[in-house]
Amino acid sequence: MNILQINSSARSQGAVSTLLANEIVARLRTEKPHGSLTVHELAQNPVSPVDEAVLQALMISPETRTPEQAQRIAEHDARIAEVQSADVLVLGAPMYNFGVTSQLKNWIDSICRAGVTFRYTEKGPEGLLKGKRAYVALARGGMHRTSPLDTQVPYLRTVLGFLGIDDVQFVYAEGLGYGEEAVTRALAAAREEIATLA
């Protein structure tokens, strides 16, 4: 089992989403210890946003790209190759202002490429990253599960499903901004969910 772990908190230390992502990975590896683990800390090594240079580079043939464009596309190619070779994705996803972090959004944008990770057909879009499983560790200061304020889960289900990853499980740690007792309860609830992950 090859695991790709993406920690998307802006915090390098002490992020609950990273803590829970680590515990998800540990749980998975107790059942299937063989294989590889690749971890990216986006706070320390951020993915640059898709900009005009990247869009232009994707629209032209590789041999006509400038060195800068070629380097930017090579970085995206490397991230895509990691996802393609992974059996399991584990995403640490804190909620910032009711959405995913800019770090996670930039990573997602870098792996979404027409003709590579998805394609358009006569029957509509088709994801090309099929047969993979994803686990998402969600950390929130408030209580948003199943409420209209939770834009993270619908977005992540949509974008992962668009890429062909339909098997997605979410682990919630909520109410982290409500004090130490709330944090203790949130972590205990999240760990109960992790213990039952398939």
TrEMBL record:
InterPro entries in UniProt: Flavodoxin_fold, Flavoprotein-like_sf, FMN-dep_NADH:Q_OxRdtase_AzoR1, NADH:quinone_OxRdtase_FMN_depd
Entry note: cofactor: Binds 1 FMN per subunit.
Reactions mediated catalytically: N,N-dimethyl-1,4-phenylenediamine + anthranilate + 2 NAD(+) = 2-(4-dimethylaminophenyl)diazenylbenzoate + 2 NADH + 2 H(+); 2 a quinone + NADH + H(+) = 2 a 1,4-benzosemiquinone + NAD(+)
Residue ranges occupied by any Flavodoxin-like fold domain in the UniProt entry: 1-196
Residues the record lists as binding FMN: 9, 95-98
Uppermost EC category: oxidoreductase
E.C. designation(s): 1.6.5.-, 1.7.1.17
Reported cofactor(s): FMN
Keywords of the record: Flavoprotein, FMN, NAD, Oxidoreductase
Domain of life: Bacteria
Cleavable signal peptide: none
Molecular function terms from GO: electron transfer activity; FMN binding; oxidoreductase activity, acting on NAD(P)H as acceptor; oxidoreductase activity, acting on NAD(P)H, quinone or similar compound as acceptor
General function of this protein: Quinone reductase that provides resistance to thiol-specific stress caused by electrophilic quinones. Also exhibits azoreductase activity. Catalyzes the reductive cleavage of the azo bond in aromatic azo compounds to the corresponding amines.
Subunit architecture: Homodimer.
Family stated for the protein in its record: Belongs to the azoreductase type 1 family.
Protein name, entry field: FMN dependent NADH:quinone oxidoreductase
Species: Formivibrio citricus
